[in-house]
């Protein structure tokens, strides 16, 4: 079981790559390591590292290696996101993909060649570092593939599948045998027209990654202390398992945070504690990586208000109570959760994913079960009668959403 944090530099946010200061990075990493965490996820900004399709800046790659080495000195493993991509409401795409050079990120042959070369180069540069976990293709790159993005690079499910296959192969070529994966925001699980699908998330790459944010309608609809809000991360972990072919495929809760004002700062620690406890009750959880390490500085303009306070640590590297919650969780002796024996049926058809979203029948039924003290997981409708599959996962009872009826306690099976 791994506990870590998404590294947001205290000085300059991710623009620190333009003025890279290794001493500042080391001080940030000291403040992270002091919490007893064991890994970080880091974000090279793609246009800073590959400003031209055939130019990957050697100095930028060297600086990434210096950061990874500094992390190793502090006992921290490192996962590296490649195609940034999208971070904290800002898009970072190289000029050779936009405006006068507008080309589709997922289908244009020249763009694919450039992306593969970039990912392979980063992976190869780090392949001999023992603390290099592997590559994530990019941060929530699915947001570029459909609405509500204002200028999407539309692609079909098959085209996305070919893109994922090629980019993961490039990472493997650069650093064989490492933990290479892809990660999307929850539209993959909730949005009917997303070309990035749950099956791809649960079957491509070394682990399944989920990103849990209750500003997706969960907290607005149910409130910050509700069962759905406090167990949303666990829900995504268990929802992802419906599509996995491997009955014990690891799931990485790669992003989760306490976003204000839906979770006010004075309640962030309690929300963190409940979220972590719920996730730790999920079998086959690879780890929890909190968003994020340090607050965004108020000197930087135009961020959504919530981004300025999401850090476990302040800009001057002082730990908040949320940091203490994660610190305590990391110090607890590891335990193996019991199997989740009740499975809620989920439709395999990706065009009905909205049933799993806040307000959908699957979502509501799942949390009625949780409110009644059940520890549910999920199973696809096409596997609901497959006894070998159910046995491999420890499932002894299968229920449909319409069998989970409202009750004063939450939900009971009819």
Radius of gyration: 21 Å
User: Main sheet: which strands, in order across?
Assistant: 7-6-3-2-1-10-9-8
**Beta strand count:** 15
Average pLDDT across residues?
Answer: 96
> Percent of residues in beta strands?
15-25%
CATH fold type of the largest domain: TIM Barrel
What does this structure look like?
- With 414 residues, the protein is an alpha/beta fold.
- It has helices at residues 22-33, 46-49, 58-73, 109-126, 157-174, 187-190, 198-203, 218-222, 227-230, 232-240, 268-280, 321-331, 361-371, 387-393, and strands spanning 2-6, 39-42, 77-81, 86-87, 90-91, 132-139, 181-183, 208-212, 251-256, 285-290, 342-346, 376-380, 397-399, 404-407, 410-413.
- It has an 8-stranded parallel β-sheet.
- It is globular and about 60 Å long.
- The two termini are 36 Å apart.
Protein traits:
alpha/beta; three-stranded parallel β-sheet; 14 helices; TIM Barrel
Question: What's a quick, concise take on this entry?
Answer:
The protein is α/β, with parallel strands linked by helices and 414 residues long.
Question: What's the SSE blueprint?
Answer:
Blueprint: E1 2-6, H1 22-33, E2 39-42, H2 46-49, H3 58-73, E3 77-81, E4 86-87, E5 90-91, H4 109-126, E6 132-139, H5 157-174, E7 181-183, H6 187-190, H7 198-203, E8 208-212, H8 218-222, H9 227-230, H10 232-240, E9 251-256, H11 268-280, E10 285-290, H12 321-331, E11 342-346, H13 361-371, E12 376-380, H14 387-393, E13 397-399, E14 404-407, E15 410-413
Parallel strand pairs: 1-2, 1-10, 2-3, 3-6, 6-7, 8-9, 9-10, 11-12, 11-13
Antiparallel strand pairs: 4-5, 14-15
Organism: Streptomyces regalis
GO molecular function, one term: hydrolase activity
Protein name: Glycosyl hydrolase
């Amino acid at each position: 079981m791994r506990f870590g944090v998404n590294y947001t530099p205290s000085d300059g946010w991710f623009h620190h790559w333009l003025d890279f200061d290794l001493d500042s990075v080391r001080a940030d990493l000291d403040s992270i390591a002091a919490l007893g965490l064991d890994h970080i996820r880091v974000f090279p900004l793609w246009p800073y590292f590959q400003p031209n399709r055939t130019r990957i800046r050697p100095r930028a790659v060297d600086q990434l290696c210096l950061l990874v080495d500094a992390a190793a000195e502090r006992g921290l493993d490192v996962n590296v996101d490649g195609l940034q991509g999208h971070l904290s409401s800002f898009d970072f795409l190289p000029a050779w993909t936009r405006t006068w050079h507008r080309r589709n990120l997922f289908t244009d042959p020249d763009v694919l060649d450039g992306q593969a070369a970039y990912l392979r180069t980063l992976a190869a540069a780090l392949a001999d570092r023992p603390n290099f976990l592997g590559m994530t293709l990019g941060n929530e790159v699915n947001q570029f593939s459909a609405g509500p993005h204002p200028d999407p690079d539309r692609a079909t499910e098959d085209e996305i599948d070919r893109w994922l296959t090629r980019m993961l192969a490039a990472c493997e070529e650069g650093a064989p045998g490492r933990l290479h994966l892809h990660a999307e925001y929850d539209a993959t699980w909730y949005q009917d027209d997303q070309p990035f699908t749950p099956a791809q998330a649960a079957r491509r790459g070394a682990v399944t990654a989920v990103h849990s944010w209750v500003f997706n309608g969960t907290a607005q609809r149910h409130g910050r202390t509700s069962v759905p809000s406090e167990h949303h991360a666990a829900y995504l972990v268990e929802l992802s398992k419906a599509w996995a072919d491997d009955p014990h495929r690891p799931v990485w809760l790669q992003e989760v945070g306490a976003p204000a004002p839906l979770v006010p700062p004075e309640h962030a620690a309690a929300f963190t504690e409940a979220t972590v406890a719920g996730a730790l009750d999920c079998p086959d959880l690879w780890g929890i990586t909190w968003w994020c390490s340090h607050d965004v500085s108020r000197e930087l303009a135009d961020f959504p208000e919530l981004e300025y306070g999401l850090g476990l640590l302040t800009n001057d590297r002082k730990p908040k109570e949320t940091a203490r919650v994660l610190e305590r969780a990391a110090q607890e002796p590891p335990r193996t959760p019991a199997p989740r024996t009740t499975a809620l049926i989920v439709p395999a058809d990706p065009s009905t994913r909205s049933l799993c979203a806040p307000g959908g029948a699957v979502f509501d039924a799942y949390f009625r079960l949780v409110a009644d003290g059940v520890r549910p997981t999920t199973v696809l409708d096409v596997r609901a009668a497959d006894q070998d599959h159910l046995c491999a996962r420890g499932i002894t009872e299968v229920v449909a959403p319409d069998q989970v009826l409202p009750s004063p306690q939450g939900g009971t099976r009819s």
